[in-house]
């Protein structure tokens, strides 16, 4: 579960945040004003201060918020001046935008507010369509509206070049004031309520937010232009109302509800991607006509309300098609206010004791939950004061100050937050008088570590509402805070989350822990690993001396039998009922081995197939809509591309067989424990993770181990790609761009039931999108309809058009996946779309574009639906930045504390360098942002810290001067791509650089020398390549797109380049193996 924050405001106007992994409220120290209420999302928090102005607190990130300003310099050629700024009257301005319709000189660009700063001065962009231009960056055309090229021709009459300048948002982790100005000037009255949401409106572009605010006069305002590159927005726009509003709530999607002054509620309708403000309001009656509503809170599919008598109500029947719902249901409990967060989780503030309560039992099937439970954690000041008291009690029963004995209070473990509102507010005069009489407390050192505790924690506050405030802590030593507002819009909690918020003894346990020896998790992991290695070495050392003795029991045999179905090898191919048996035995030398038997009937004759366990090369779960199937490969069947395919009666039975067969295969080959540091890692197209222990003869010349004889065994987890090095550091990226680091375990998934594979296993989640296509053909009578030609594809199909896929019959990839969202139009498809999501083409097999022309007779649009997988594996999440690619130096560190270079690309295309990655801390400590002129999509680091990257436009770049002292280097060098090719992926070894282009061609960079690390030219090696991975000794592994076997065709096959030597770095031929979709051989040495 990613770390997220719950925000709250107490009655004194102080803002606090509570982490989902924390056990105390952390005060926002930057707040110089008292706040009335806040509304939070994952990336920021908005608030209304006591001056009725709106403030924004953007969470700091290792990736800064940067915005690229651009303008174009235009020139025309004439016989006298050659190219100059003397343009024709009908031409565009000398300085303009890309369309030429707006005048944009360099001095017309200003910072939006004082919260921004310029990164540097204007400079010329020398990249054009993925290829470098001349030094001055000019591109040429026959006229301004025509197509530009980087080469000057005889008919080039105009030219232009692009100027770039970046500005950076600097006001992070601080409250920045938002101007109260609309498009027509200052707003007439200040604000009283605020709500933020709307990041899931019908596939809204990533980072978009909707901010709604209510003024003191009951008017509603909408903040426009809030997105990732403009967190403050552009301005306020008033929204018409049927009455005066007192409070408003906006959910993550298209739900917006508000409370009228009379106690009725109104619902905003017509909220879409193109109109986030909506179009109209609909009135909904209060749950209790005698006691009108005073508060409303909405989520994805829920609406909660509070009436004037503090009763809580739940609105049933809420969905995207019916935002008004169907009726109210009264709930138990009395609250002052309610807030709905992510996953429709609910928080509230009780009217009895002003404590924050969490609604337990909220699931997708039971959105109303089951019960309220108090969030009982201390504030950060409480921890320190109780730590001081606990330390003092170790010295004596009391502390002596000026001859007096004062008993130190320790928080009781049996303290209860439900004792009623017996929380006195101390008067300012009495506290000052007490402070004048009492000398300051002294520090007490405990133990050799010198742990010290402060006796008190003070802060300065001003008066809010009717509370009398003082210069010291407003709460007593044993009093609980009084909360006024809570916001969970950025708090990612679900029904499976393990929270530490409900332990009343947190403060005491924290104070005790503060005096204990501090041992980091990394040190604990290293200690356990060292013990395991020492025990393994001792066991081998003592057992090897007695191998020549005769065993008391020469061998033992046991058999496991079962019934399955088998996909018959010959025609007619069909599922056949068979008996399946595993016979396992131990030989004279103590080694484990076994045989698989498959008994079937053919023409009323009993026959069988068999396979030796030590010949099995891989066991692969196979996705099937109706059966629980898996495949068994041997070396011979890998060559044929024709495995033994079996189907179990239940999913549990399939997992039992897979676990048993996997352990048996590993035992027969002497593989035990976690993968070695030199293991090869790969992932299948379904996300399963496999490892292979390389044999010493894998790279032996001239007879290396064939790829089809390599044994791969599964490791728990689910990943889209995996990257490793020869030191044992392994990182992975999921389909939802979440980053995971390997913990050193070797279980999880279907292996989670094995007792020996439970160490370092954690819960892992992944989210992916399932896509289907809606196809239509044009006819002169009705226009575009779903009536196609007899030869056309299905009107609802997959990407190929060969398989019918409707919204109703399309299921998640496997039973492990569950839907977490409804079908929605995908506007982010390559090629662009129109306002309704359609793409047009002359016919279905041709390329698509986002605008209609006279020659377009067909159109399609893509629908997407998210599904979620929950599994287990030896992986821990690395928050908080989602990544699209990651690379680790193949080798380098010689000690456990020496840094290991690791680079990555975020899902937005930012280049990042990870700091603090060592053998003890493989997850690292922080990210260092490396500036680029455009988003990137692939990156690789090789020997001598060579960093190569591919931009999204297909151009290649080399990062110069990357060293241990300067881990991020100094500048990017643009490397020309192969002629008329756009590159997709890059991999760097010790002295070799390989790339793959968009057409599946593999290229080798020639001329790489220490004096010329950029190389000289590209040489074509092979086609039919998806991915490439180069090892520390320049070994080359690829994923081939399609490989023909003797029986069938396989897609995504692991191939090893043979004949790679220092004098022959390109190798000679390919050796074919199994078929994942991503492989990393950079750990193999």
Automatic annotation (TrEMBL):
Chief location category: membrane
Alphabetized UniProt keyword annotations: Autophagy, Cytoplasmic vesicle, Lipid-binding, Lysosome, Membrane, Repeat
Domain Peroxin/Ferlin per the UniProt entry, residue ranges: 64-125, 137-170, 765-826, 837-870
A single cellular component GO annotation: autophagosome membrane
SUPFAM superfamilies associated with the record: PH domain-like
Pfam families noted in UniProt: Hyd_WA (PF06462), Pex24p (PF06398), Tectonin (PF19193)
GO terms under biological process: autophagy
GO terms assigned for molecular function: lipid binding
Compartment(s) where it occurs, according to its Swiss-Prot or TrEMBL record: Cytoplasmic vesicle, Autophagosome membrane; Lysosome membrane
Signal peptide: none
Matching SMART domains: DysFC, DysFN, TECPR
Source superkingdom: Eukaryota
Family: Belongs to the TECPR1 family.
Record's protein name: Tectonin beta-propeller repeat-containing protein 1
Organism: Oncorhynchus mykiss (Rainbow trout)
